[in-house]
Specification:
heterodimer, A: Cytochrome Bc1 Complex, Chain D, domain 2, 0% strand, B: 423 residues, FAD/NAD(P)-binding domain, 5-stranded parallel beta sheet, 4-stranded parallel beta sheet, 25 strands
Amino acid sequence: MAAAIGVVSIAAATVASAEPPAGAAACSGCHPASTRVTSPVPRLHGLDRAAIVRAMQDFRSGKRTGTVMDRIAKGFTDDEIQAIAAWYATQK
Amino acid sequence: MTTSRREFLKLGAAASAALLPRFAFAQGAAPRVVVVGGGFAGASCARALRQADPKITVTLVEANATFTACPFSNAVIGGLRAIEAQQFTYERIAADGITIARGIANAVDAQARTVTLADGVRLPYDRLVLAPGIDIRWGALPGYDEAAAATLPHAWRAGEQTLLLRRQLEAMDDGGLVVISAPANPFRCPPGPYERASLIAYYLKTRKPKSKVIVLDAKDAFSKQRLFLQAWSELYPGLLEWVPLSKGGNVTSVDAATRTLVTDFGRHQPKVANVIPPQKAGRIADVAGVADRSGWCPIDAVTFESKLQPRIHVIGDAAIAGAMPKSAFAANSQAKTCAAAVAMLLTGAVPSSPKLINTCYSLIAPDYGISVAGVYQPSASGLLADVPGSGGVSPVEAPRAVRTAEAVLAEAWFRTITGEVFG
């Protein structure tokens, strides 16, 4: 399992600086891309990759309760979550 | 004479005019994208195109100097919010290096790849993005034309119509009847009529408690229905009544002179009537030949390119986006997907399958919010479909703190999305 995730993250890292992976661009509808916006919803740009992955997996499994993220996380696969997290981790 | 034509002559080449676009590209000319419509879809797309590839020359065609947002305009109608909080300008978008063409797009030549504005200016494009939002289908509801809207406001495009409905509610004596007629699907903002009924009921409850609001509906089911009905019985008992299609809710004609709404079962003569009429894609979609007989625009689920005209993309409320509702969040999500696809297509690359999100909040009271969320991807049949197992509405059983939290998140969403699109 750990090895599988390792392979995925290497693949994700190679595209991290390029176009946002599938689904990533939609996040900023609620997670502010701008630092000028005040919101209780956290900004994802520059967040730790593992923290994003953990949050998405916990929302998806129900381990963490959310208002909408529990419903949204269920729409993403492990690979997609890894790619999105890797991309946001490299954004400023 | 168009820019590309001038460049062509300047180069003095003997290539035929038919080969011109390819030839111009080979010389390193900047690809040109014209976006028509500066709402959530169009303005988002213009900015996302510049971000995806700064070499793209982006022109945004918009008739108005100020944009008035529909989300939260029901709070304006309910007296909870100033219209100014809904209004945004295009200065920051222009500062991104996007040319703002103030005007109305009147014609599209899909062969010559030009958009002509009402003042005669012709804009050449390599790809065109149409984001015209909705037009009212005047006359589809007998008696409801543009003149009738001055008496029976639709308030379904925010601005003066929003303020007209608010003024009518303010002028109404306590004990008055308000009627909202809600259309059949599809239409802009599926939960919108019910949020509006809620916030009008809130206004009546707090200011004119002997009054009543009735929703006459052309449908038997609506978005977030269980959550709305539950909250209405809790917050507005006796104040808000919903009449579905099967109970005679379908409004078949209206008479503006007598402020009368006629249904199969009877007549209503309210003090204030809000007619939310049948809709279609904004006018330029029809002119460009991208709307089908339904009045809406079939698109490719990966690129949002029209199924009817090459190199023209349609996003936002005007598009037939499968399971995605006609919402500002969906429009913004589609705009970013479309921009990435257009940027790739302009370099000859093939866009990969996207994933899109929608989240829509509705306020039932200032401190009572509910939501629907969804995740979408192109299905095998080529439509945008729900990702199985994802999405859904707020829990029906939830402590009041959850509703309060969603009301706070609704406002945060509005700040965030308008910040991304206009800020």
